[in-house]
Amino acid sequence: MAKVRIKGMSCQHCVASVKEALEKIPGIENVEVNLDKGEADYQGEAPPETVSAAITKIGFEVVS
């Protein structure tokens, strides 16, 4: 599973938004977002730039 750290999530609506954004990326599936850890795990192949862009587009920050 790939993992991305996300800054700015504060509620379950944020979690749902991130999950939905990642699931729209072709090739990504089984998305799990953890609010407490500020992380999203997913399976599949997608360029990191594509994942970061999807998260940034909905108002969150990807942490390196």
Pattern of helices and strands: EHEEHE
CATH class, anyone?
Alpha Beta
Poorly predicted segments: none
Strand order in the sheet with the most strands: 2-3-1-4
How many H/I helical runs?
2
**What gross morphology would you assign?**
globular
Q: What is the fold named in CATH at topology level?
A: Alpha-Beta Plaits
Number of domains: 1
Largest sheet: 4 strands, antiparallel
Mean pLDDT: 97
- Give the C-alpha Rg: 10 Å
Helix-strand category: alpha+beta
- What amount of the residues lies in strands? 25-35%
- What's the N-to-C terminus distance? 17 Å
> How many strands appear in the DSSP assignment?
4
| Helix-residue proportion | 25-40%
The CATH architecture can be given as 2-Layer Sandwich
